Amino acid sequence: MKTYIKTILFTLLLGVVTLGFAPTLQAATTTGGGDYGLTATAVASGLKSYGKDLPTLVGNIIGTALAMIGVFFFILVTYGGILWMTARGNDDIAKKALGTIIAAVIGMLIVLGAYGLTNFIINAVK
After folding, report:
1. Beta carbons within 8 Å of 68's beta carbon, 6+ residues apart
2. What whole-number distance in Å separates Cα of residue 57 and Cα of residue 76?
3. What is residue 95's predicted lDDT score, i.e. its pLDDT?
4. Reduced to 3 states, what is the DSSP secondary structure of residue 50?
5. What angle do CA 31, 45, 30 make, to 5 degrees?
6. Which of 12, 50, 102, 124 is most open to solvent, judged by the fewest CB atoms within 10 Å of its CB?
7. Which of 62, 78, 71 is closest to 108 using CA atoms?
8. Most confident of 47-51, 55-59, 69-73, 114-118
9. 51-67 burial by CB neighbour count: b if 16+ within 10 A, else e?
10. How confident is the model at residue 54, as a pLDDT?
11. Phi-psi sector, 88: left (phi>0), alpha (psi -120 to 50), beta
12. Which of helix, strand or coil describes residue 31?
């Protein structure tokens, strides 16, 4: 049973990571040097216009990493909740489920705190 749950979680995580990069991999490219109005259309529709400088690239990578961490947090909390609901009065399984949920919340707080502290320091230096 544990192997089955691990296989499902691994498959879900792999799918999220793979599908997370799909829009980037399918971005339109041109050989003629022009973008045929794609940039203007993206800006007019409210989409982000990504620059080619290093801070923008690092910001995009951090944003993607935070999104994946958020998905991983959601998966862990959902797994812990399902484990807790299916414990059927077994205290060991209920404690494991509660431990999983608490660890996920603590991990998310650490990640968000580190991001907030880094963002504060970078804005203070500017």
Report:
1. 16, 17, 20
2. 29
3. 96
4. coil
5. 5
6. 124
7. 71
8. 69-73
9. eeeeeeeeeeeeeeeee
10. 76
11. left
12. coil
Residue type, 68: M
pTM of the model: 0.56
**Is residue 12 over pLDDT 60?**
yes
List of residues 6+ apart from 28 with CB closer than 8 A: 35, 38
Which of the residue ranges 15-19, 57-61, 121-125 would you say has the lowest mean pLDDT? 15-19
Residue with tokens 């529709």: 45
Q: How many residues does the chain have?
A: 126
Rounded to 10 degrees, the C-alpha dihedral 31/35/38/44 comes to: 170
| Residue 78 token pair | 């959902």
Rg from Cα positions in the chain: 20
